[in-house]
Amino acid sequence: MMNWFRNKSKPSSGKDELTLKELLSKCRASKDFISFEQSDVYTVSYYKSMVDTATVHRDVLPILNLDPSQSLDYLKKILPVESVLVTGDITKIQSRLLNGNILIQKPLTNKCLLVPAVSKEKRQITIPENEYTVLGPKESFVESLETNLNLLRKRLPIPELYVKELIVGRLTKTKVVVVYIEGIANEDIVNTAIDRISNIDIDQVIDTTYITQMIEDNNNSVFPQLIETERPDRVAGVLSEGKIAILCDGSPSAVTGPTTLVEFFSAFEDYFLTWHVASFFRLIRLFAVSFSVLSTPLYVAVLTFHFEMIPEDLLYTLISSRSGIPFPPIIEAIILELTIELLREAGSRLPSKVGQTIGIVGGIVIGTAAVDAGLTSNVLLIVVALAALASFTTPVYKMSNTIRLLRFPFLLSAQLLGLMGIAICFAFILVHLLKLKSFGSPYIGPVYPLRLRDLKDALFRLPFSQQTVRPFTVLSEKPVRFNHKHHAEKQPDKDIDE
C-alpha cells in the first residue's frame, strides 16, 4: 500500500532560482557563516560548523597565497583535496556549501571553486545494544554512513557490492543508500526499493525507521515487513543471500528485505552455535511467542465459558485463589496486563540502572499488593508474568512490540466467545498474514507457499553443508550458493605410536 505522502511526481517549490548573491546574503544571516577576502583577490566563504578548519588553514589558504593571479581551474589542479569542483550551477553551489564545502570566488566571474572540507564528528564503534550476542563479532553500526559502509565492505570485499545513493527529504536532504550484490540480488527487488525511496515526498527523514514506514508493502499492518538491525555481520549475511539493505546517514541501523515472518524469531547468534542448539533455541522462541499471546486469553476463556475443562484438582486451586475477588477474569487480566505494560514503559524511559530497579522492585511490590488487596488472583499473576517473560525472547524489537499488542484483541475475543473467539481472532490474523508481502515476496514463506528447501533455515537450522541454495523467496539471480561435494569417508585416525 502506497503512503499518502509518496507521489510519482514531486511538486515544484514554486520559487524562482536564487542568484549567487542572494544565496550568500541568506547565508551571511547565520552566525556560523564565515566570509572574508584572501590576498585581496579571492573571497572565501564557508560554514565553520560544517567545515574542518584544519583543512582551511593547512590545504587551502597557503595555496591561495602562492599566486593570487591564477585562475580557479588552475587552483583546482594544484589543491591537495579530492573532488574539487568549478561550477556556476547555483543548485550545486548551495548543496555543496551546506554540506561542508569551502566556496572560493574571484571577481568578474560567475563560477566558483568548491573545496570539500567536511568536519566529520562521529561516535566510536561500540558493541550492539539491542542485538547483543555472547559469540560472534561485537561491532555495531554508528550514525556515520561512510563508517557503516566501511563495516560492510570489510566483510564483503568484492567489486560486485553495489551502493546506490539517493537524497530524501526536502529539508534534511538525507543520504539514503541501497546496498546489494550484483549478480546475486534480484534486479526487480532492487528496482522496487529504489523506486519506492525515490518517490518519497516528505520534509524530513531522520532515521531508517522513517524509510521503513514509507516503503513497506502495507503500512497499516501491525506486523513489521522489513527487519531493522544494528549488526553489520547480519547485514552482510542477508546480502549474500540475495537480499538488499537500506542505510541512512545519521542512523545507527540498517533495513534489510525482503523478509519472512520466521526470520523475526531467528537471532543471528544461531549461526555461531551448532545446528542442534540453534534449532532448539528457535523452537523455544516460537513456543514462547505462542504462550505469550495465548496464555492469558485461554485463562479468561476457560474460566468464563469452559470451566468444565479444568481438572478437578486444579479447579480447587483456582477457586481458592479467586475467592474474595470482586472482578470477573477479564477485568483482572486487563489490570495485570496494563500494569506490566506500564512497568515496561517506565523502565525503558528511565536510565538503565534505575529502569532495571523499577522493573524488578515495581513488579514484585505491585504484584504482591494486588494479590493481598484481593484485586487479582495469584494464579493469574503467575500466568501474566510468564507471558511477559516469554515475549522478551523475540530477537527483533519491533516484532516484540507486535506480540505485546496482539494479546489484547485475543483477550477481548476470549471474553466475547471463549475458545471460539480465540479461534476466530487467530483466523483473522492468519488471513492477514497470508495476504501480507515484503517487497512482493510472501510474508509467511517458506511455510506458505510451501518451499521444502527453504525449511532448512526457517523453523530450525540444519548444518551449513546442507544449505547449498539461497532462499527461494528472494528469487536470487544466482540461486546456488556452492556445490556440495560428497567426500569419501575419512580414514580412521592413526595412533601416534603407529
Automatic annotation (TrEMBL):
<dbReference type="InterPro" id="IPR004995">
    <property type="entry name" value="Spore_Ger"/>
</dbReference>
<feature type="transmembrane region" description="Helical">
    <location>
        <begin position="409"/>
        <end position="434"/>
    </location>
</feature>
<feature type="transmembrane region" description="Helical">
    <location>
        <begin position="355"/>
        <end position="373"/>
    </location>
</feature>
<dbReference type="InterPro" id="IPR050768">
    <property type="entry name" value="UPF0353/GerABKA_families"/>
</dbReference>
<keyword id="KW-0812">Transmembrane</keyword>
<protein>
    <recommendedName>
        <fullName>Spore germination protein</fullName>
    </recommendedName>
</protein>
<feature type="transmembrane region" description="Helical">
    <location>
        <begin position="283"/>
        <end position="305"/>
    </location>
</feature>
<keyword id="KW-0472">Membrane</keyword>
<dbReference type="Pfam" id="PF03323">
    <property type="entry name" value="GerA"/>
</dbReference>
<keyword id="KW-1133">Transmembrane helix</keyword>
<feature type="transmembrane region" description="Helical">
    <location>
        <begin position="379"/>
        <end position="397"/>
    </location>
</feature>
<comment type="similarity">
    <text>Belongs to the GerABKA family.</text>
</comment>
